[in-house]
Design a protein that fits this description.
136 residues; 6 helices; mainly alpha
Length: 136
């Protein structure tokens, strides 16, 4: 049985880390505002917004895993649980690859229309890949 003190310690640690992560985000925005000019900040926000929008195209797959995996494991359906994780991971990777291929196809138009240097577009690819992999 889990002791109440252990639960309390873990809860406090979780909330402290959550508050610290919010503080890092707030202070990083102040740093970015000071570091970039108005034009560069606009480009940064456009890239960040594009990455967030593309990252949200996960089709609810994490929710499917959250919903069905504990149920399968509690019934000791380990093979089905493994298949669920494997197929969902494969689906997320395939969706990410398709989005990246489409974006690579239109990268030159995107870069010229929004006057964003090509290097920033490549950074956007890496941010998208990192956000997709980290959500797995």
């Amino acid at each position: 049985m889990i002791k109440a003190t252990t639960v309390f310690k873990n809860s406090v640690a979780m909330y402290i880390l959550k508050i610290l992560s919010y503080l890092v985000v707030v202070f990083s925005y102040f740093y970015i505002i000071v570091l970039f000019s108005k034009e560069e900040y606009g480009q940064y926000q456009l890239i960040l917004s594009t990455v967030v929008i593309l990252s949200s195209l996960n089709l609810g797959i994490p929710k499917i895993i959250d919903r069905y995996l504990p149920e399968l494991l509690s019934k000791e359906y380990y093979v089905q649980g493994k298949k669920l994780v494997y197929v969902s991971f494969l689906a997320r990777i395939c969706i990410s690859i398709i989005i990246l291929c489409l974006f690579l196809f239109w990268m030159e138009e995107f870069s010229s229309n929004f006057k964003i240097p090509r290097e920033y577009i490549i950074y956007m690819f890496f941010l998208f890949l990192i956000s997709t992999i980290s959500e797995q």
